[in-house]
Amino acid sequence: MRERRSQAETFPARLRMRMHRVRTAVRRSGVDYFRGDGSDWIALAALLLTVPLIAATTIVDPVWCAPAALVLPIVAGGLLLRPASLLGLYAASACALIVESVQLGAYTERDAAVTPGTVLTVAACGFFGLLIAQFRSRVGVPWRRGGTMLFDLRERIRTQSRLPKLPPGWHREMALRPAGGQSFSGDFVVAARTNEGRTLEVVLTDVSGKGMDAASRALLLAGAFSGLLGSLPPHAFLPAANGYLLRQDWDEGFATSIHLVLDLETGDYELFSAGHPPGLQLSSGSGRWEEKAAEGPLLGVYEGAEFDATKGTLRPGDVLMLFTDGLVETSEREIAEGMDRLTGAADRYVSGGFHGAAWHLIEAVAKDVNDDRALLLICRDA
């Protein structure tokens, strides 16, 4: 009886262990295939069957099926096969090209069957197909899932840059314009409402580099900063972010960042800056823009960096703008001139409100700038 009871008790444990092994095997096989180490014999067999089919059709009717049609399985193989399998496909294609040349007759200037140009075209497609296959093998991205992975990365960056909803009387909006019209950017925003929803914390960061060159680092930092935000006191966020960036030991490991801590009940706020351009506040009473600059070094430069805050208050009708240097600074324009241009364009929205203004301000101030541009607006309704 005791043996039966012990077997009954251990059966769920054994079942869980077996299920874990099955899941591990499936996961490993999926990872291996994703890396290009999985079996591709089905795709190879299908492409190998198309080679003699194309060759036979070419021999029967070379007008409708030219000898250059052999580039079709070669191009497909470059997208689907591993380099080792691709070489086998190339050997079969070369044999088919030789058979076509023999069956259709020798090349003459008046009647061209398999011309030298055809051979060069097939060889060139094979060369570029091999380059593509080697790139996929090195990166570990299959052709049919590589686009999905990039799409997922882009959506994750956009999701992390969404701003939380604010209580009535407040408006916020964010516009991001990557360099060169790309979908990836080195600028990002993370935000959260803390202190039981009373406080809004927003971090706008500009990673060194631009576009796709900085997108992977921006995604990694956005995830780390999102985890830190709200988990630490406001004054401890930038020191912790600086330490995290130093631990990555990147060649281009620095970044600028500005951290806004806003009390949504009183309108009081603090700005912590790490080498970032100052914020701009519009006072509804005077109608003037005032710089809000805080002191602090770049993130990822040296340990033990200290970041001092500047304080302010958003009264009804006031507006606070935070932005990255790509919006106000270029090789031909200094940051002071760019900020004057930004405030001049923003003045047009004072009377009608700033709803929907962020994107239009980027268009008006830095439309053709080859750098990542980001603009954040926080408005308190009058």
Briefly, what is this?
This protein is α+β, with helices and mostly antiparallel strands.
Would you give an account of this structure?
There is one protein chain. With 382 residues, the chain is α+β, with helices and mostly antiparallel strands. The chain has 2 domains: 41-141, no CATH class; 155-380, Phosphatase 2c, domain 1. It is built from 11 helices and 10 strands. The strands form 2 sheets. The protein has a 5-stranded antiparallel beta sheet. Strands 2-3-4-5-8 form a 5-stranded antiparallel beta sheet. Strand 6 and strand 7 form a beta hairpin. Helix 2 (41-60) runs parallel beside helix 4 (83-104). It is elongated. It starts with a helix and ends with a strand.
Largest sheet: 5 strands, antiparallel
Structural class: alpha+beta
What's the arrangement of strands in the largest beta sheet?
1-10-9-6-7
* Name of the CATH superfamily of the largest domain: PPM-type phosphatase domain
Mean pLDDT over all positions? 81
Question: Approximately what portion of the residues adopt beta-strand conformation?
Answer: 15-25%
Distance between the termini: 80 Å
Name the CATH class of the largest domain.
Answer: Alpha Beta
